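Per your request, structure below.
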């Protein structure tokens, strides 16, 4: 197939482009920024530009939409809707104009809200922030595209937090804090976290090209769910760090996060700590994967092995000898 990836210069997109090429697909990448790993197949373009998207999709068999505003500190908030929702509208219109029959879309488990243990695809959606709200709205836009022609295929994946080599997201941030020796647990660490390794997510997305007509929605997480304590213990073990600091109560952590928000607003500089990040850290952020497991997908990498290989790649000077 000829597959166009929109937003493929980023973390997941870079891995997906490699996965698709290894499977023999012809690929193209359209992104606002160049791709360090795949410059030969990359063109600059904006997902919100319908004309540019139509030109990019002409002759394609499938398009993967990875373009998104996703950070916690995006300002103004209208940028979420502009990229995530308006971008989905432009891409849907372009797919229709170019006659592309398959759309693959990465949504997010943020559509379920916080503190809900293992929500499934059939559970109500209760997004708690603009990122989750606009990703859900984008899903609806693309569902509308799929409903216009019964031959069309829409493959929507709602991944949990994705980590891996080269990523600077939540897992990397936590590992950096652990490596520094300044990590402070908030709460008792018994809350569980669903996580997904980028190599597994890329493999699952690539397999979505074989989905038949209709709309297919699947949560994605690698098993088992680790508690925050288990996760930090694994990181400390791999990094050779021992911590004896007492945990900070949740309420105190939330107060500290709110204070950091005030400082960030006054100084107009984002800080590594915020109330929403504390809320997410102490929340039970798990997702149900019965539909994923029923699909027969076998992730290429085991979760704990993937965590350890990520730490070894990102902190080679800190990893304890085998």
């Amino acid at each position: 197939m000829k597959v166009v990836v929109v937003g493929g210069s980023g973390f997941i997109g870079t891995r997906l482009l490699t996965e698709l090429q290894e499977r023999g697909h012809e690929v193209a990448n359209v992104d606002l920024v160049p791709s360090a790993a795949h410059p030969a197949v990359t063109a600059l373009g904006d997902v919100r530009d319908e004309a540019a998207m139509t030109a990019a999709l002409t002759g394609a068999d499938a398009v993967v939409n990875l373009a998104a505003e996703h950070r916690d500190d995006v300002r103004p908030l209208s940028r979420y809707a502009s990229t995530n929702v308006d971008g989905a509208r432009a891409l849907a219109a372009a797919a229709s104009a170019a006659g592309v029959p398959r759309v693959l879309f990465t949504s997010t488990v943020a559509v379920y809200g916080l503190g809900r243990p293992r929500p499934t695809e059939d559970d109500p959606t209760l997004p708690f922030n603009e990122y989750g709200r606009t990703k859900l709205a984008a899903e609806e836009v693309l569902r509308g595209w799929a409903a216009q022609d019964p031959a069309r295929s829409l493959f929507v994946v709602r991944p949990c937090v994705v980590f891996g080599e080269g990523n600077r997201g939540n897992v990397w941030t936590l590992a950096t804090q652990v490596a520094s020796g300044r990590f402070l647990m908030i709460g008792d660490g018994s809350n569980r976290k669903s996580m997904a390794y980028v190599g597994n997510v890329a493999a699952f997305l690539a397999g979505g090209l074989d989905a038949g007509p209709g709309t297919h929605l699947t949560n994605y997480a690698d098993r088992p769910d680790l508690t925050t304590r288990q996760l930090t213990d694994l990181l400390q073990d791999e990094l050779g760090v021992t911590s004896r600091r007492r945990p900070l109560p949740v309420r105190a952590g939330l107060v500290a996060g709110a204070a950091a928000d005030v400082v960030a607003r006054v100084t107009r500089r984002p800080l590594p700590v915020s109330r929403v990040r504390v809320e997410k850290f102490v929340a039970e952020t798990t997702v149900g994967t019965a539909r994923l497991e029923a699909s027969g997908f076998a992730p290429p990498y085991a979760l704990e092995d993937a965590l350890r290989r990520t730490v070894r790649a990102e902190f080679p000077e800190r990893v304890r000898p085998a």
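Residues 184 and 247 are 6 Å apart (CA to CA).

Regards,
D.
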